[in-house]
């Protein structure tokens, strides 16, 4: 555009009126052509993150304010999250939002003034996760005293893995290593670290479900060597912190040098200043116990030598003392008494054996086969006699019982009311089964039953005769 904007809009040679849309479009084209790339410095206010992912805010200073928007594709490259009151330097292009007629800045890059973007992003994420409770002390898990299997997440080509393996191999012989390689620098490194942590945890859970105790991971080391803030930024990402906290295995963070602190250090169960220090922590107990045992062994050896020398000295002193003469006399007397007691005991044992042998001979005579056969014959005769007597007595008692039973049966049969039926008598009953003892108990026309010796008769009363 070769002439000023408003001069072109109100040129005397063109008197035709413009619509609002035409005028607004011309202004937008003019602004976008003139301010296609501009840096603006100011303070952020009215910041709003829309659900679509776009950012909307206002840049202002003491004298003016400017609406600004940052689309999702652009703010994905910004490492910090804007907040109200933050002084920033924005790069973008001017445009006009035609629906409202407002001009605005389309932000493509955003840098804080005074503090670095990475520093602000680090502090924002740290404060947010701390407020969420992700760094709470009660979440920190203890480590096993003697870890048998250690997981490691780091770069396969970095110095960290070599340092860790050198320390572990030098200080312990019982710790095994499971290595899960991951990128630790550059775009996508945070996702790669989180994936490697999950991979080792999945292996641990499968071994736990299968009951393979030798394949369980006791502790997990994640880290890398030192570098700039940008180099260590993968360990300042939220997904790495959450992967550490979600790990079923206790985690040691060993990132950079002793002065480097990352979000992973706060989320981990323990922080080691360097990867080598993390390896020393893993093998510390075994190395310390071995050193302690070696020192105790040396102390015990010195103590035993001292005890032997002291005992040898005391023995030599007592050997030269007159007490030994008295001891020899007592030993000699004790030997004589012992010999006498041994002789007496031998005599007593001989008498006891002789008496026992005599009693055994007497018992053996009593138990000789001939005497036993005689006693068996006599016992057999007595048994046969007793058996015959008992059998005869039982037969006599049984015959008497049969006789008594026959008499009782005869008497019972004579007294039975049914026996008279065989002599021609009958028993009359009404329909209810009640005995008819009196002619007045029945009426003419009643049905009665007559019980005979064999069978029953159904009858009807034709007449009643009183006797």
Tags for this model:
single chain; 467 residues; alpha/beta; OB fold (Dihydrolipoamide Acetyltransferase, E2P); Rossmann fold; 5-stranded parallel sheet; 18% strand; flat
What would you say this structure looks like, in words?
With 467 residues, the protein is of the alpha/beta class. It folds into 4 domains: 110 residues, Nucleic acid-binding proteins (OB fold (Dihydrolipoamide Acetyltransferase, E2P), Beta Barrel); 145 residues, 3-Layer(aba) Sandwich (Rossmann fold), CATH 3.40.50; 41 residues; 41 residues, no CATH class. The protein is 48% helix and 18% strand. It contains 11 helices and 13 strands. It has a 5-stranded mixed β-barrel with strand order 1-2-3-5-4. The protein has a 5-stranded parallel β-sheet with strand order 7-6-8-9-10. Helix 5 packs parallel to helix 9 and helix 6 packs parallel to helix 7. The longest helix is centred in the C-terminal third of the chain and has 47 residues. The chain is flat. The model has no long low-confidence stretch (mean pLDDT 83).
Provide a compact summary of the structure.
By secondary structure, this protein is of the alpha/beta class. 48% of the residues lie in helices and 18% in strands.
Write the SSE topology:
Elements: H1 5-9, H2 20-34, E1 38-49, E2 55-60, E3 65-70, H3 72-75, E4 87-97, E5 102-112, H4 117-132, E6 149-154, H5 159-171, E7 176-181, H6 189-210, E8 219-224, H7 238-246, E9 251-255, H8 263-267, E10 270-271, H9 275-319, H10 323-366, H11 369-415, E11 427-429, E12 447-451, E13 456-460
Parallel strand pairs: 3-5, 6-7, 6-8, 8-9, 9-10
Antiparallel strand pairs: 1-2, 1-4, 2-3, 4-5, 11-12, 12-13
Helix pairs in contact: 5-9, 6-7
